[in-house]
Amino acid sequence: MAALLAILMFAVFITIDWLLSRKHVEATSGVHAREAVPVPVDVAHDAEPAVQPVFVAGYEMPEQLHYHRGHTWIRVTSPDTAAVGIDDFGRRLLGKAQGIELPDIGKYLLQGGKGACVETDGRAADVVAPVAGEVVAINKELEGEPELVSKDPYGRGWLYKIRSPHLALHVRNLLSGSLARRWMEDSSERLDHRLMAMSGTVFADGGEPAQDFGDHVEAEEWKSLVEGFLLTQGYDRAAS
After folding, report:
1. How many Å apart are CA 2 and CA 29, to the nearest integer?
2. In 37-117, where does DSSP find H-type helix?
3. Which domains does the chain show, CATH number per domain?
4. Taking residues 65-82, what's their average pLDDT?
5. pLDDT for the residue 2
6. Beta-carbon neighbour count of residue 127 at 10 Å?
7. How many CB atoms neighbour CB 128 within 10 A?
8. In the chain, fewer beta carbons within 10 Å around the N or the C end?
9. Cα 140 to Cα 45: distance, rounded to the nearest angstrom
C-alpha cells in the first residue's frame, strides 16, 4: 500500500512540473512573438525619430532610405508599403516647387515609370516611381504647400505611399549603403562638370551648387539635366 501511494505521489509531482513548464514556455513564446512584430513608421504623421543628417558630396542623404537612380527614394513603412519622395539632389535640380501633380489613389505605377510631376516657374518635370505598386495614399499637405518638396524633401515633403506584395523584390533594384554613396558622388561630379560652363550664380560660395540651382539654369539646359539625371521628361509648362 505504501509503495502504491509513493508511486501516485510521484506521478502527481511529475504532472504539476510539466504543467508549470508548459505555461512558462507559452508565456515566453508570446513575448518573443510580440517583440518580433515590426512597428510601421508613418511619415505622414512625422512618427519617425529624428536622425542626424548625413551628407554625401554636399547633398543630404539619410542612410535609412533606399534610392532610385532617378533621384527618388522610398522609406519602408510596413512589409508591403513604402513612402516615396524626391532626394536632395533632385529637388535642387528641379528648383523651387510651385505645384505638384500626384497620382490618383488606386493607380498602379511601374518601377522607373512616371510617378508624379513637379512644376517650377513655368517648367515642369516628371519624377520616376522608385518601386512598382498601387498608390494607397498621397500627401495632401502638398496641395496647399507644394514648396514642402523643396524645403523638407525627406520629411513633410514626401509625395505618396505605394503598396506592393513584391516590395522586397523591388527594393533589391534600389541603392543603399556604400553603393548609394558612391552613386551620389558620381552624380555630383557629373553635374559639376556640366555646370562649370554656366553662370556663376549656379554655384554658392564654396564652389558647391546653390540650394535651388535649377532655377538659375536656362530652359534647354535644365531640360537636358532633368532627362539625364532624373531619367524622365522635363518640359516647358506653357508650351505643353
Report:
1. 41
2. 88-94
3. 52-240 (2.40.50.100)
4. 97
5. 53
6. 28
7. 24
8. N
9. 12
For cell 552624380, what's the residue?
187
**Residue 114 Cα distances to 72, 135, 177, 185, 206, angstroms:** 11, 13, 25, 25, 35
Counts for the chain of helices (H) and strands (E), in that order? 7, 12
108, amino acid identity: Y
Classify the C-alpha dihedral 28-29-34-38 as positive or negative. positive
Question: What pLDDT is attached to residue 207?
Answer: 56
Residue with cell 538659375: 216
pLDDT at 139 over 60: yes
pTM over 0.70: yes
